[in-house]
């Protein structure tokens, strides 16, 4: 099942009505997170504006893209100004087609391998090229000559393609191991251990990471000479406390800084710990913020009318093309209507993909306390480099301290 939520069905101001449509997964473990983000984003919208908001949640079958198209067309007949979601590709294609043909802004917040989408599509999640380049830079900076990639599905290979391009002729081979569906990964992990490799990229959903690490520990793949790079943007937000005694080097990439002023502010307004705000929740908030800010900016120049449309006719929105331009080229004086953005500056290129993207490099602290610390930044404008916040002198000092705490056994013949 899927959840369709109008965000809102009626959004009133002095210029008239504004209608939203948001689409969320209802048949996975994340529906509570996305629903929570929607409702609390609307609360902030109500508090910071004169808009009157009423939301509706409607379920639609995951397997039926035809039903998805019909449902969206029914909503559009009542007047819709933007569409949000869904996450999976099954229904994305038909909804994207409807949005493009009627020139309705369509916001995605999930990974989409199609980097050149329709003009009306804006994807807030970093695309495969950006993630791949960031991982490639991290591998290069760590001087990994050989490593094993543990991956979940074929999408992993797309995310890692730039990493693979970094391989030089004299580098040793890179191994690819599919983890399988689980939940028992011990057989695969034992095979990996036999290779004697010590460096790994783990590409899987965040909710599988801890189980994999528990089993990796059992088979002896979490020693102090093992290093891991985790690709999921929420890996750092997991509860790592049970691995406090593990001293393996574990790094990851994140899009949202939970220590930022924006995150702390939203955490306070949502009444939750900022560390509990997952990436998908932050992207929902940012997507609504991008659109309502653009709607406000455009409505200050001209009166906008959100009129009913018909999927079977050639009529399109009157504001669509202008709205795209406002979103892709916002005024320097424009400020977000909501409380800033959670995932950094939200700017789009001509294909509706994030540009000037900044990802944060984080690693588990040593001595280990279960937390991740910021160690550097990757900027899409300078894709081959990582700007480190931890100096070489600091690294050397930490290494010396780590050596001092170790016990060495001396064996003589």
From TrEMBL:
Keywords: Membrane, Transmembrane, Transmembrane helix
One Pfam family of this chain: ANF_receptor
Main location: membrane
Subcellular location: Membrane
CDD domains: PBP1_iGluR_Kainate (cd06382)
Keyword Transmembrane: yes
GO CC terms, sorted: membrane
PANTHER family: IONOTROPIC GLUTAMATE RECEPTOR
Name this protein carries in UniProt: Uncharacterized protein
Protein's organism: Dendroctonus ponderosae
Classification lineage: Eukaryota, Metazoa, Ecdysozoa, Arthropoda, Hexapoda
């Amino acid at each position: 099942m899927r959840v369709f939520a109008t965000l809102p069905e009626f959004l009133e101001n002095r210029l008239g009505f504004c209608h939203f449509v948001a689409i969320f997964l209802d048949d996975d473990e994340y529906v509570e997170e996305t629903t929570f983000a929607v409702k609390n984003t609307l609360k902030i919208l109500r508090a910071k504006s004169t808009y009157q908001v009423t939301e509706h949640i409607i379920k639609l079958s995951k397997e039926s893209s035809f039903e998805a198209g019909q449902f969206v067309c029914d909503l559009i007949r009542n007047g819709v100004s933007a569409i949000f979601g869904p996450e999976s590709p099954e229904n994305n294609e038909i909804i994207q087609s409807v949005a493009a043909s009627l020139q309705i802004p369509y916001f995605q917040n999930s990974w989409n391998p199609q980097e050149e989408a329709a003009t009306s599509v804006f994807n807030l999640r970093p695309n495969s090229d950006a993630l791949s380049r960031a991982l490639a830079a991290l591998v290069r900076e760590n001087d990994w000559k050989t490593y094993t990639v543990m991956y979940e599905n074929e999408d992993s290979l797309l995310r890692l393609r730039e990493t693979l391009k970094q391989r030089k002729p004299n580098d040793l081979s890179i191994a690819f191991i599919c983890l399988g569906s689980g939940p028992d990964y011990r057989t695969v992990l034992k095979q990996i251990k036999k290779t004697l490799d010590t460096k790994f990229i783990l590409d899987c959903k965040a909710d599988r990471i801890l189980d994999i690490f528990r089993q990796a520990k059992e088979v002896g793949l979490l020693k102090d000479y093992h290093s891991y790079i985790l690709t999921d943007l929420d890996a750092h937000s997991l509860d790592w406390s049970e691995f406090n005694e593990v001293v393996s080097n574990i790094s990851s990439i994140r899009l949202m800084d939970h220590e930022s002023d924006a995150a702390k502010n939203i955490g306070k307004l949502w009444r939750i710990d900022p560390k509990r705000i997952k990436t998908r929740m932050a992207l929902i908030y940012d997507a609504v913020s991008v659109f309502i800010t653009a709607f406000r900016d455009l409505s200050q120049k001209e009166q906008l009318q959100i009129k009913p449309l018909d999927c079977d006719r050639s009529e399109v929105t009157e504001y669509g093309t202008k709205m795209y331009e406002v979103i892709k080229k916002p005024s320097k004086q424009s400020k977000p209507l909501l409380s800033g953005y959670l995932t950094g500056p939200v700017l789009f290129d001509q294909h509706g993909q994030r540009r000037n993207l900044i990802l944060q490099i984080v690693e588990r602290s040593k001595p280990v306390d279960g937390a991740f610390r910021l160690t550097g930044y990757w900027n899409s404008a300078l894709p081959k480099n990582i700007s480190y916040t931890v100096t070489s002198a600091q690294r050397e000092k930490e290494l010396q301290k780590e050596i001092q705490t170790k016990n060495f056994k001396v064996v003589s013949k």
